[in-house]
Input
Amino acid sequence: MTLPVMEPDLWDDGAATLERWSRAVDAGPFSSLCFGERMAFDNPETITLLGAVAAWTTRVRLVTTVVVPQLHDPVLLAKSLATGDQLSGGRLTVGLGVGGREEDYRAAGADVATQTMGEMARRVGVMRRVWRGERVTEAVRPVGPPPAQAGGPELLVGTMGPRTIRSAAAWADGLAGVTLDLDPVAVSGLFDLARTAWADAGRGAPRLTTSFWFALDDGDGSARRQVHAHLRHYMNWLPVDLVDAMAPTTGFAGTETELRELLTRFEDVGADEVQLIPTGSDVAQVERVAALLG
Output
C-alpha cells in the first residue's frame, strides 16, 4: 500500500494522515508501505518521511517508489538511506528511477543532462561503495553508518519499458514497475524480459513488482471520478486534455471483488508484489483493502 503523499489535502491535519496510514498498513495484511519522490510538488521530502515511517511501523517493508538519484549527492543519499535502513531494522527497499519531469531537476539544482540510465547506474555504483565501507572521499573514516542489510538495501528499478530493464539488469535487484491500463499480459511480457535480462547478466531471479492507481467503488461512479481528480492533480506537468483522455482507462475503479480478481491475475503472471497507489487520503481505503485481502 502506498501512502497518499500526492494528495492535495494531505497536510490539512499536519502529519496525522501520514501516521494514521502508516500504522493502519503496518497493522494490516500488507507486505510493504510505499512512497514516492517529487521535488516541484507539495509531497513530503522522501528521506525525512523515511525516518518517520520507520518509527511509526515495526513490520512492513518500507519501499521508495521511486527516488531519483540525480536529484541528490550520491554519497549523502547513500548515508541517508543507510540511516533509514538502520532506523527500520533492515526493512528498507529502494526503488530508483531517472524521473520523468525536468522541473524536478531544475527545482533541485540538478543538471537535466544527467537524466539518463547511465548516470543513474554510476551513482548507484557510488552508493554501493559507500555501503561496503569503502572510502569514497578524502576522510579519516569511511562514510557511515553501515546499512542494517549487508551490502545495502534491495534496489528496484522504476520502469515501464524494455530499454530500462536491459540497462538495469547489471545492478538492480528487480523491478518497481507501473501499469496504467491494468493489462496482466503486457506486464507478464515485461516480467519475462526481466527474467531473460537478469539471466543474461549472470544475476539471480529478479524481484518483480508492479503498481497502479486505485479507488474503490460505492456504486455511484465516485471511484472513477476520484481517480480522474487525482490524475489531474498529480499529472500537473501534462496538458489537461491529455490527462482527461487518459483518465477513463487509467488505474482501477471498481468493487472489492473486482480488485481481488485483478490482484489474482497479476499473481498468476508472476508478480511478487502489487503496490496499490491510492487516489484519496481517507484511511478507510486501507481498511477496505485489508478486509478484502483477509
